[in-house]
Amino acid sequence: MQTHTSRRRGRDASAGLALVGLLAFGGCGGSGSGSGGGGGANAPGVVWPDRGGGMSSTLPAAVVTGRVIFQSASGEACCVAVDPTLLTPNPGSGQGVLILDDLAPGPATVTVAGFSTDFAPTVPGITATCKTVRAAGAAPCDQTRNASPAFESAPLAVNIVAGAQINLGAIDVSALPFVLQNFSPAQNESVPPPVRFDFTVADPVTGVAAESVVLEVTVNVPDEKQPPEFHSLTKRIPLTLKICTDGSATPCNPTGDLELAGFIAAGVAENLPEGPAEVRITAQNLAVPPRDVDFRYIFTVLPEPSATPTAPPATETPTAEANPHALQGNVPAAQDGAPSAGADARAVEANAAAGSAGGYAAELPTPTPTATPII
Fold first, then answer.
1. How many Å apart are CA 58 and CA 228, to the nearest integer?
2. In the beta sheet, which residues pair with residue 313?
3. Is 368 exposed, middle or buried (0-12, 13-18, 19+ CB in 10 A)?
4. DSSP per position, 264-312
5. pLDDT tens digit string along 177-229?
6. Which helix (H) or strand (E) holds 215?
7. What pairing do the DSSP bridges indicate for beta strands 21-25 and 165-167?
8. For the whole model, what pTM was predicted?
9. Are 27 and 43 in contact (CB under 8 A)?
10. For the segment 324-341, what is each residue's pLDDT rounded down to a tens digit?
C-alpha cells in the first residue's frame, strides 16, 4: 500500500493533511480493485479493437496521444494527455505504468481516449490537469484546440480509496469515426466568401457510412422582426465524397500509414454572412451498433471582397504634329474675296477644338464670290 499526503486539497480539515488515492492503468502491484473492469497485478491496461473483430494490446497506428479524464462524484475533475504506451504497458515489466495521484476519495468515473494528433483536447468545463506519479510522458490537455478521438472507452466507474492504489485492469475502448486535422477552413481561421470546406472523416477499424457524412454551418444573421437583434441560422452544405483507404492510391491520411478507411469530403458555401461561424461535422462508422463523431469548431467569415473600380484609360490630347489637318490643312490661303479675319479665327478655333477632342473638323466653307457692279 502506498500513502501520500497533500496540503493542497485539505480534505482532512482537522489535521490539515489527508491520505490520497491513486489510480493505476495496467497492473504494477498494489491493492484494491476498480469496479470498471476487474483488477489484479499485471493487468493489461487498455485493449484495442482490430480489423479482424478481436481485441489486442498492440497500440494502433492511428493513436499518437492518449487522454484520461477523471471526474469525481464530489465535483472534482481533471484531464491529462499522455504517451499512449503508458496506457498499455508491457505485462510483467512493471515499467511505464500510468498512475494518477492525489485523487478525491469516493465514487468517480474514468474515461480513456486515443487521438491521431500530437495533442489531446480537454472537454468543456475541465481545466485542471491530473497529477501523475511520474511526470515523464504526461502533459496538460489542450485548452484551445479541438480534435475528435479515434478510440474511446465508456466512462468506467471506480471507487477511489484514501491511501490505496486502485488498478483499473483491462479497459476496453471502441473505434470511432474521426475528423483528421487537415480540415479547411482551419479552426479560428478567417476566410472570405465563398467558403470552400475540405475535410477527411475516417475510421481505424470499420470504415464510414457514406450517407451519414454531414457538414452544417451555423451563423448569426440579423433578425428582421427585432433589429438590431440577431438569430442563429444553420445551413447544410452539399458535399462531394471520395472514397479513401490508407495503403491505396487514395489514402485518407497524407502519409497513408494509419490504417484508416473513410471519405475525403468537399463542399462550398456561396453566401455566408460576415462574422463567426460554427462548423459541425457528423458521421457514423460501420460498426454494430454504429459509433458517432460530432466534431465542432469555429472560424470567421470575412466581409465579401468589394470590386475595385477600374480607372478609364487616359485620353491623349492630339497635337498639331499628330493631327496636322486640324490646324494647317484646313486653312486656305488668303485670296481675293476671302472670309474676314474674324471668320478665319472662328474656323481655326473650331478646328482646334475638334482636334483636341480627337477628331477632325470639317473643311472651312469656300468663300462665295461677290459680283462687281458695272459702272
1. 57
2. none
3. exposed
4. EEEEEES---SEEEEEEEEEEBSSSS--EEEEEEEEEEPPPPPPPPPPP
5. 999 999 999 999 999 999 999 999 999 999 999 999 999 999 998 877 777 78
6. strand 214-222
7. parallel
8. 0.73
9. yes
10. 443 344 444 444 444 444
